Amino acid sequence: MRVGQGGDGPGPHTPDGSAVELYELAPVTGEDELINAAIEPASRILELGCGTGRITRPLLALGHHVVAVDESAEMVARVPGTETIRSTIGDLRLDRRFDLVLMMSFLVNVADEAERLRLLRTCAHHVRPGGTVLLQQQLPGMLHAPTVREKGNRRFVVSDVEQRPGNIQAATLTHTVDGRTWSQRILTQNLTEEQLASQLTQVGLTLADYLTPDRTWVRARTA
Ligand SMILES: C[S@@+](CC[C@H](N)C(=O)[O-])C[C@H]1O[C@@H](n2cnc3c(N)ncnc32)[C@H](O)[C@@H]1O
């Protein structure tokens, strides 16, 4: 497990505390359509931190070509029907370039600036000139306790939120699905637009715009 992160509950967990069986049950909530609308048909996509392929599957079904990367062997083993690579994002160096490099799930909010730069360097290395990097970022106010959301057989709770200097938060996320419960302690850092733009510049990318009015989905391009 990484510092400040951990997970409990049935089945295997990744080093960032994500539960493999929970992600296998997680629904798609429109992310695929948002991504599809931002790219050309039959795009070559590098998906970083793919998990069980929750988003890989619909992107493949939409006709894109996806190479799916995750550091967890248990996660990539569940990604069907496409090339998968088991690697940390920071260490990945393929001799190929992609139309889209996708890094969602708030991975850019890792609370360690050097690690964030390593992730962004990997994004920059693998995007073709003129291509797109899409990031899903966490925003201030997203993590507050108590948060309880219930829908059908699912319950989601945010608890034990701890604010630390430098816009860093620790929090516990607890998911219950059909009576099975997983919890994950996360450590994240919210970024100002200036911080994110500056780090993108350091790796040779430019913050272009946002796909959503709330600025969660960030589009960057080669500088
Ligand atoms: C919260 S899960 C989300 C998975 C998927 N993106 C989704 O939306 O369903 C985050 C995934 O990113 C992977 N991950 C986190 N940090 C990583 C890193 N530095 N290198 C490779 N994989 C990483 C974890 O193993 C986990 O599978």
Automatic annotation (TrEMBL):
Pfam families from the UniProt entry: Methyltransf_25 (PF13649)
Methyltransferase domain ranges (all copies): 45-131
GO molecular-function terms, A-Z: methyltransferase activity
Gene Ontology BP term (one): methylation
InterPro entries xref list: Methyltransf_25, SAM-dependent_MTases_sf
Highest taxon of source: Bacteria
Keywords: Methyltransferase, S-adenosyl-L-methionine, Transferase
Protein's name according to its UniProt entry: Class I SAM-dependent methyltransferase
